[in-house]
Structure formats: C-alpha cells, structure tokens
Amino acid sequence: ELRSFRPGICSRLDRNTSGLVAAGKTLPGLQAMNELIREHRLCKFYRCIAAGSLKQQKRIEGWLKKNEKTNQAALFEKEEKGSLYICTEYLPLKTFQEGGRAYTYLEVQLITGRSHQIRAHLAGIGHPLIGDAKYGNPEVNRYFRAHFGLDHQLLHAFRLEFPALTGPLEQLSNQQYEAPLPSVFEKILEGT
After folding, report:
1. DSSP structural state of residue 129
2. Model pLDDT, residue 1
3. What is the dihedral of CA 71, 76, 82, 87, to 10 degrees?
C-alpha cells in the first residue's frame, strides 16, 4: 500500500484563482493534513477585490447549494434540501474608487470551505468579485478587462495558518505561509 502511495493535493482552488494549496508528500502527512482541513483547524485566508464599499469586518453565514449542471452555486438564508452550511469572514483592507465606482480590497477567511464559497457569498450580499464571469457584474468586468487586462476573478489564496501540532505535521506547528499577490492586484490597487 505504501509503495503505491503518491503525494496528493489536500486543498483545491476554483479555476482561475491563484495562490497556495496544501499537499501531503507522505501518507501520514496527507492523512494529518486532510484531518486538519476536515476539522477546520487549518486557517485559510484569501485576498480579493469586491465591487462596492465594505467598511467593517463581518462574519456572514448561509446555505449553499451547487447546481452540478451549471456549475454555479445558489445561496439561501435557511437550510434547503441538498444545501451545505457556509461561513465566511471578511476584513476590509482598503476602499478605493476606479472608473467612478467604489471597490474594496478584502482579506477573507474561510470558516467552512465549500466550492465557490467566497465568490457566491460575496455576490450574494451584493459585492461580487471583480472579473468574476460566473457571479460578477458584466459591466464592471468589461471595465477591468479594458483598463487592466483582467480576464478572471481577482481571488488569491494568500495565507495558510497552522495551529499547534504534534505528530507528522509537528514541524508546521504555529507556522504561517503566504503567497505573494499577483501583479494585477498591485496595478488595480494603485490605479495604474
């Protein structure tokens, strides 16, 4: 069984999302990493730019149900058949104006980790990610494509924070890892 083991990815990113993913290079490491993720003990932080002005740190909750045919998620305030609970926290880092509209640069923490969670959750509260063809505002997306060449949602898996650990992942105990932001973030935040 160990001879046939291959290193594996433990976390996933939506298509066109940049940044960090977690992987296990040994069977015990992969199992321990998957357990951390399943128990929501590995803290995952993302950076994004959302439409509109968000002023305060906030925790948002709801229920997400993904349509496998359209590969799009719908949000609900109450549990629906086949839906999964989601919880997202965001912290506004900077609000700015571009093309006569307000935008907010956010740090987002996934409390739960569902497919399309950040994109659907922010769009669901009226603040879609810029560049997001699935959940975003087409007019806003056209503006950022024309002025910055943006052709995907601006979402980046920025930081992983590990809790105190023992066992196969002990060397990661209380560590954090960051992935530098893609240059398009800087260009948009600087307005160049």
Report:
1. B
2. 53
3. 90
Q: Which residues of 107-117 are buried (b: 16+ CB within 10 A; e: fewer)?
A: bbbbbebbebb
Nearest to 50 by CA among 149, 178, 155, 139: 155
CA proximity to 91, closest of 68, 57, 62: 57
How many other C-beta atoms are found inside a 10 Å radius of the C-beta of residue 79?
12
Match 């989601």 to its residue by tokens.
86
- The two structure tokens encoding residue 190: 């600087």
Give the whole-angstrom CA distance, residue 160 versus residue 20. Answer: 8
| d(C-alpha 72, C-alpha 65), whole Å | 9
- Count CB atoms within 10 A of the CB of residue 50: 28
User: What average pLDDT does the structure give for the chain?
Assistant: 91
pLDDT digit string, tens, across residues 76-95 = 889 989 889 999 999 999 99
Long-range contact pairs involving 89-94 (C-beta distance under 8 Å, separation at least 24): 89/57, 89/58, 89/59, 89/60, 90/54, 90/57, 90/58, 90/60, 90/122, 91/57, 92/54, 92/55, 92/56, 92/57, 93/47, 94/189
